[in-house]
C-alpha cells in the first residue's frame, strides 16, 4: 500500500492516524461488538460520542456557552438556503459579501427566501482580492451579513474577521474552519461542510448563537429549523453517525497535535513555502493579491496551457494527486488542509521546481 501526497480540494486528505484508528475500530467500536455505523444514534454509546465530540470542538475553538453546536446534513449548499429560511423572510433584506464562486452560490440559493443584496463583490477583479471594507455598502436593515472567509476555488481568504456592527455575521467556513485560532464571539453563525477540514462529506457543523435561534419561524418544516435541531441535540432525525464519528476522531487528533495555535502556525508555514516557490519561480503564477491569499487553497498557473496535461501526468506518477484546478478557473490548485503535512508540501515544491527546470 502506498498513500499519495493528496492535495485534493474536497473531499480531501484526512490524517493518517485517524484513518488507521477508524480501520481498527471498524468491526468492533468501543467494545460494543459492532461498528459505530451499526448502532442506534439514540443508544448510550453514540450519545456519549456526540457529547464528547461537541465538547472537544468547543475546547478547540473556544466556543462560548451561548452558542449551540449542531451536526447536520445537506452540505454547505443546503444551508445556503436554510439560513434565510431560518433568519429572514422573503420581504426582508440580507447582505452578502461575494469574493468568489461559493459566495455567488450562496446568493443564488438564498434568493427564494430573502432579498439577497450584494453589499460588496470583487467579481470585477476576477475574485483576486477582497473589496476594501470602506467600500462595502451594508444595509442597516439587513437581517444578517453573509460572507465566505475562504473561497476554495479562487484561493482568496480574509485574514481578519470583518467588522459589521450589530448585524449578525454569518460565515461559510467550509474550507477554513479549524485552520487557525478564531474568535467565535464575533459571529452570529458559522457553518462548514465536513469534507475539507473536518472529516467526510455528508456532515455539516453549525455553530449558532442562541439569540438567532429565537428567530427561526414555526412556518418552516421542522427538519429545516435550526431551533428544532438545537432542541433535539442534532438527533431530530438520524444523523450521519459515521461522519460524526470521523469528525470526533479528527477533533481528538487536533487536540493531540496541540490545538489551533499550533495548527495555524503549521498552515502558515506550508502556505508560505508554496507561495514562495511559485513567486520565485519565474514559471508558475498565482493571481491573488498577496494580502488575500488563502492558506488552504493555492491556485496556480503554468506559463502555457499545453504544459498542464504533462504536469498532471508527471505529478501523478510521482505520487502527487488532486492538483487539477477547478473547472471554473483552470490551471492547478494545491489544497493544504490540516491533514496535509509539510513533508507533502516539500515533495510538491521539489516536483514543481524540477518540472519548471525541465520545461522553463
Ligand atoms: C466545498 C464548499 C461548499 C460546498 O459544500 P457541499 O458540501 O458540496 O454543499 C460550500 N462552500 C465552500 C466555501 C466550500 O469550500
Automatic annotation (TrEMBL):
InterPro entries on file: Aminotrans_V_dom, Pser_aminoTfrase, PyrdxlP-dep_Trfase, PyrdxlP-dep_Trfase_major, PyrdxlP-dep_Trfase_small
Cofactor annotation: pyridoxal 5'-phosphate
Keywords, in A-Z order: Amino-acid biosynthesis, Aminotransferase, Cytoplasm, Pyridoxal phosphate, Pyridoxine biosynthesis, Serine biosynthesis, Transferase
Residues where L-glutamate binds: 42
Aminotransferase class V domain mapped to chain residues: 6-348
Any single Gene Ontology cellular-component annotation: cytoplasm
Pathway linked to the protein: Cofactor biosynthesis; pyridoxine 5'-phosphate biosynthesis; pyridoxine 5'-phosphate from D-erythrose 4-phosphate: step 3/5; Amino-acid biosynthesis; L-serine biosynthesis; L-serine from 3-phospho-D-glycerate: step 2/3
N6-(pyridoxal phosphate)lysine modified-residue sites: 196
Any one biological process term the GO annotation gives: pyridoxine biosynthetic process
Compartments, as annotated in UniProt: Cytoplasm
Comment on bound cofactor: Binds 1 pyridoxal phosphate per subunit.
Catalytic activity entry: O-phospho-L-serine + 2-oxoglutarate = 3-phosphooxypyruvate + L-glutamate; 4-(phosphooxy)-L-threonine + 2-oxoglutarate = (R)-3-hydroxy-2-oxo-4-phosphooxybutanoate + L-glutamate
Family named by the database record: Belongs to the class-V pyridoxal-phosphate-dependent aminotransferase family. SerC subfamily.
Annotated function: Catalyzes the reversible conversion of 3-phosphohydroxypyruvate to phosphoserine and of 3-hydroxy-2-oxo-4-phosphonooxybutanoate to phosphohydroxythreonine.
Protein name, per record: Phosphoserine aminotransferase
Annotated source species: Dokdonella immobilis
Amino acid at each position: 500500500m502506498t498513500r499519495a501526497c493528496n492535495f485534493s480540494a474536497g473531499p480531501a486528505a484526512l490524517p493518517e492516524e485517524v484513518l488507521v484508528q477508524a480501520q481498527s475500530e471498524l468491526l468492533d467500536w468501543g467494545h460494543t461488538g459492532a461498528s459505530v455505523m451499526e448502532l442506534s444514534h439514540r443508544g448510550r454509546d453514540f450519545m456519549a460520542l456526540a457529547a464528547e465530540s461537541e465538547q472537544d470542538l468547543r475546547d478547540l475553538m473556544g466556543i462560548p456557552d451561548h452558542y449551540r453546536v449542531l451536526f447536520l446534513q445537506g452540505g454547505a449548499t443546503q444551508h445556503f438556503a436554510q439560513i434565510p429560511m431560518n433568519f429572514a423572510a422573503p420581504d426582508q433584506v440580507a447582505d452578502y459579501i461575494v469574493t468568489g464562486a461559493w459566495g455567488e452560490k450562496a446568493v443564488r440559493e438564498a434568493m427564494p427566501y430573502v432579498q439577497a443584496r450584494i453589499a460588496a463583490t470583487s467579481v470585477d477583479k476576477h475574485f483576486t482580492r477582497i473589496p476594501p471594507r470602506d467600500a462595502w455598502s451594508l444595509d442597516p436593515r439587513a437581517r444578517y451579513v453573509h460572507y465566505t472567509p475562504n473561497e476554495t476555488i479562487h484561493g482568496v481568504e480574509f485574514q481578519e474577521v470583518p467588522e459589521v456592527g450589530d448585524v449578525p455575521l454569518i460565515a461559510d467556513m467550509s474550507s477554513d474552519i479549524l485552520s487557525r485560532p478564531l474568535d467565535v464571539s464575533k459571529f452570529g453563525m458559522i457553518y462548514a461542510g465536513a469534507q475539507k477540514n473536518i472529516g467526510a462529506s455528508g456532515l455539516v457543523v453549525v455553530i449558532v448563537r442562541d439569540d438567532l435561534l429565537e428567530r427561526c419561524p414555526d412556518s418552516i418544516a421542522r427538519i429545516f429549523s435550526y431551533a428544532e435541531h438545537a432542541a433535539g441535540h442534532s438527533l431530530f432525525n438520524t444523523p450521519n453517525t459515521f461522519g460524526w464519528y470521523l469528525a470526533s476522531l479528527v477533533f481528538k487528533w487536533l487536540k493531540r497535535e496541540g490545538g489551533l495555535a499550533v495548527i495555524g502556525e503549521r498552515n502558515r508555514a506550508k502556505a508560505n513555502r508554496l507561495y514562495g516557490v511559485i513567486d520565485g519561480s519565474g514559471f508558475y503564477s498565482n493571481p491573488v493579491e498577496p494580502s488575500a491569499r488563502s492558506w488552504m487553497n493555492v491556485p496556480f498557473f503554468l506559463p502555457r496551457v499545453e504544459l498542464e496535461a504533462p504536469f498532471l501526468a508527471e505529478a501523478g506518477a510521482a505520487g502527487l494527486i488532486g492538483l487539477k484546478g477547478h473547472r471554473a478557473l483552470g490551471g492547478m490548485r494545491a489544497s493544504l488542509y490540516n491533514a496535509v503535512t509539510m513533508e507533502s508540501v516539500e515533495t510538491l515544491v521539489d516536483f514543481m521546481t524540477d518540472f519548471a527546470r525541465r520545461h522553463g
